[in-house]
Amino acid sequence: MQFNISGTTMQTVSIDLQAGETIYSQRNVMGWMTDTIQMNTHTGGGLFKALKRSISGGGMFVVDYTATGPARIAFAARFP
After folding, report:
1. Cβ 26 vs Cβ 10: under 8 Å
2. In sequence order, which residues have a C-beta less than 8 Å from that of residue 49 and are 6 or more positions away?
3. Can you tell me the distance from the alpha carbon of 70 to that of 24, in angstroms, rounded to the nearest whole number?
């Protein structure tokens, strides 16, 4: 896994993954990805943990991105 942070006001982090590597994130932060990544959305530990995240300002769901081959994914903020 290699990563690169670029930008000044609107920073992005792009991550190079090898086959089988997985990254977890909250929803609405992925900017772009290659077609060798599979997405899976889940509650991240059950209903209680999802509600706890939701009440504290996060999202109910967690997204995991798994590379099926050499892949690149980028995450960016929604606002500067």
Report:
1. no
2. 43
3. 17
Whether the pLDDT of residue 48 is over 90: the answer is no
Distance CA 27, CA 75 (A): 11
pTM for the whole thing? 0.80
Going by the DSSP 8-state scheme, the letter that residue 19 receives in this structure is T
Contact 55, 11 (CB under 8 A): no
Tell me the two tokens of residue 80.
């500067």
Per the CB < 8 A criterion, the answer to whether 63 and 3 are in contact is: no
C-alpha 51/C-alpha 65 separation (Å) is: 22
Q: Cα(70)–Cα(61) distance, rounded to whole angstroms?
A: 26
Q: What is the DSSP letter of 54?
A: H
